[in-house]
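[SOLVED] Need 3D model of a two-part complex

Original post:
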Amino acid sequence: MSALQLIQSVIGHGAVVVGVLLFCIAAIGLLRFRDPYSRLAATTKSGTLGVCLVLLGVLVLEPSWSHALILLLAVALQIMTAPVGGFALGRAAFRSDAPMPDRILFDELHEHLAQEKAAEQARAERDAGRDAERSTAPRADA
Amino acid sequence: MIAVPVIIDVALVVLALTLLPAAWRVATGPTEADRAIGADHAFFVFVAVVALLAVRIQRFEMLDVVVIGTLVGFLSAVFLARYISRSRR
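Solution:
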């Protein structure tokens, strides 16, 4: 084995091993964190970086132009789409009233949503009252 | 090109083991969001496993599955998010 092949093997296998360790960290976070938002952070961050490192490690281990095309496309797609998916999941967790962390200090979005809901309810009641007046008025004339 | 050493095998086994916490989280997540997060992690692991398996058995047609898996994983995350928020935007 020449020196170049040795360097190639070390870099490729090193990237694969680091990527797999990141997956392990994500799995431990999935088990041990206490609220969905922390679990989502563990999964999305280390999942994204872990997939990218494993794919780049495969590319270093088996270098060719066709593999480079496919794997770099996959890495670019993963970097672009995985945070978006994680953000969508976090937003959905918030909207489905997942429990917030215990030690949270500021929760401005919940306050804002409560205000918005109250304003909408007041507007709906006012509209309902006006509709009721309008529907009863002709009947009173008749 | 390079002799496939035992590192790839060990990496595949470890990745399979990281699927167990994801399965446990999907089965017993307190909220629906936790189940969706476990499924998301399982998709990431699937993509990595397919790439490593292509190296292990030297069948590089499987690398196409990696691209498809990336896209399907993103779509599944977005639609799971839509599902658990139930059109409450």
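Edit: Chain A touches chain B through 53 residues (CB under 8 Å).
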